[in-house]
Amino acid sequence: MVMDSRHVRYKRVIPKEFRLPFTSEDGSAGWTCFTYTIRFLNFKAGTDPIQQSASEFLLLSPQLLDEEVSSISVHLNLPAFAAVDSKLNYCGVLNVSPEKVETVKKFNIWLFHLAMGKCFALPKVSGEGKKNYYVLPCKPITGDTVPSPEELVDWHVVEIAITSSLLYRRKVPFFGGYATLDCQNTQSNEALDGGGLRMRNGIFQEHDLEDAVVTCANNGLPCFVSGILHDLSGSSFCSQSAGRKQISYSDYYFHECKYKLEYPDQPLLKGYRLVRAGNYVRRTSAVSNGDSVKPWETMELPPEVCILHVGLKGKLCRGGMRLPSILHSLEMSLVAAELRNNIGSPLSCFKVQEALTSGACEGNHSYETLELLGDSVLNFIGGVHMYIDFPSCTSELLHSYRHDLVSNRNLYKCGLACGLPGYIFAELLNTKTWVPPGPALEDLPQKSPDGQVIGLKTLADVVEALIGVTFLHGDLNSAVKTMVWLQVPIPFPEKIPEVIIADIQELMEARNTFKDHDIVTLEKKIGYQFKCKSLLLSAFDYGDEVTFTQSGVPRGSFQFQRLEFLGDSVLDFLIMRHFVQLYSAFNPEQLNDLRQATVNSENFACTAIRHGFHHYLKRMSPILRDEIELYAASVHREGGSPFGIPSRASPKAIGDLMQTLAGSILLDSNFDHDLVWKVLKPLLSPLATPKTVMRHPRRLLEALCHKQDLKLELQTIQLEGAVEARVYINQICVANSKHYEPTVARRLAAFTAFRSLSPKRNGLMYLDSVD
């Protein structure tokens, strides 16, 4: 029994490159590091110029990264509608001395605690962390030539950062609220005569404040300075909400902080509050206003209430705030590369990463489309397996067995057995709980449970997506190889057992009523010459009458329906592949519309009528033959429909004919699915396209009812040999339809209901009501 996974958390796999410790070539306590530059390119300015300036970094790894990942590019959607591409490139080997090792660790603790908004008391190191890699700031790189790692690391900035009082917040012992500020007891003309600005910790020139980092003494908030507002001073009025009394900056600080500005004539500083790093890899369309994160808060600051952190620049903090998103993406790609290597696939790791990423991550790629394709691949392989291994089972049993074999519950078990949950990315990046690289730390509270929740369906979907991606960018053998690694127990036969063909030949020798010239004509219509003519004959031998062999095995319709089961598997698989390859940018809903417009019995029936295949259908009862003739007449009169919605529902026999034909060609070609598509694509053309297919009738009806605030309910009732679908709107049955396929019955009923509603000024009027 599979455990309910709704409350089970799984730890993510740490990339193998970051699981090993640093070592030194000379055996000392120093490190030999493989380094990679993290640079920012192709900037989109957005509405705030401050986003354009950020420090670049050097990543230190104990091992060489995967070759494909080592040049990864990550697109970041920054605040204020800005965007930038971050690029990783190998830089060389850096030897870090034992004395510098502790400095590297301290800097990473400082940087990530600042960027992620964690506590500002320097915690103690308690050993190696979960992610054994580090970052260091780079000196500015000019031109195309990148210096060596030794020349590139800005150790001066590192020393300034780790000795900065910004880390400890010594001036204000609390975060938030307001403090009562003491006077500085300095002369007001001292700053003005010197040409500088009086700060809380001294007098500084304007150039000292360029992109400087300050702490507001009244509330402890760290800010970086983007400019000096020469048109504003302490005597100027603050910006106030509508309806509130205007007040000057001097009065504001006097009332709120009990502090009288001693230098009210000094120009104010334009400051940006330093906030926690955001999720910058989230796609902008996932946010209502199109901005990936909240804009940074700006404020006007009197210099005398600000503590300047000398030498520390805002660009270092802004660069650090980008790192969680970049490094999280890097880890995702490395994990995907590791899984790819475990499977033994030659695929790009970024394609594998797409198959591992849930739509809940709100990135630019997710597995939903690949899962659709993987589902069709599984059904095809499962269909072939069932047809070959269970020759005496009816099509109903084959459908049931295959359903159980490829069910989400069974795929979930397979995913657990091969350890797949640790490779999946199922949750939105949360920079509050993201584990930064570097050493393990003491005395840090655990704010959230470790790992991520992965449900049964998510894990099953990823299994299907991995099968889909290896097939899409490889072939069927690649997909089968992936299934073996995933422990999905569905073998694909190398060739058709001779006994299968022999049984069909024996059966058709006794039942064949075709003349030789009819076979030749039919093969020309199909565009394929069968090696085994009995397979062609069996595709058209409906056998409406029930007959049995001497041993009691059913024949006629039994074989026809088994071929229909096999053909249904291959047609759905081939058509889904066609649409995924042709419309790679489409979302799953759009692809499903195209598939359902093509893979349905009504469309297949129209295709069979159009090519005259119904004239070759054998062993039909007079009643069925009359039904087919009436249906053929309606098709010729009305034409086909992209969703198979003629005035008359097709007889099941004619709807199954294209599927039995697909199954017989698949067997005759020894499972050459590409050949099957080469033969059937011209017959099925014109295939549905975005310009010719209507939206699914049910979704059209749902949208219409939602717009008019109407209550919609769809019911299906199982009848003998058919399903009846009924559409109720505001508890009134406005349409119904009967069909042997439940999906077609619901589609026909929804279409009828949609057409029976007429828009009126005061709502919708029901033109017809069905009892």
UniProtKB/TrEMBL annotation:
Query: Per the database record, which ranges form the PAZ domain?
Result: 179-310
> Which SMART domains is this protein grouped with?
PAZ, RIBOc
GO MF annotation, one: nucleotide binding
Q: List the keywords (alphabetical).
A: Endonuclease, Hydrolase, Manganese, Nuclease, Nucleotide-binding, Repeat
Q: Which domain of life is it from?
A: Eukaryota
Give the required cofactors.
Answer: Mn(2+); Mg(2+)
Domain named RNase III is located at: 352-475, 519-670
Q: Name one GO cellular component term.
A: cytoplasm
InterPro entries in the cross-refs: PAZ_dom, PAZ_dom_sf, RNase_III_dom, RNase_III_sf
Give a GO biological-process term. Answer: siRNA processing
The family database entries (Pfam families) matched by this protein are listed as: PAZ, Ribonuclease_3
Is the Hydrolase keyword given for this protein? Answer: yes
Q: Does the keyword Nuclease apply?
A: yes
The entry's protein name is Minimal dicer
Query: Which organism does this sequence originate in?
Result: Physcomitrium patens (Spreading-leaved earth moss)
Lineage summary: Eukaryota, Viridiplantae, Streptophyta, Embryophyta, Bryophyta
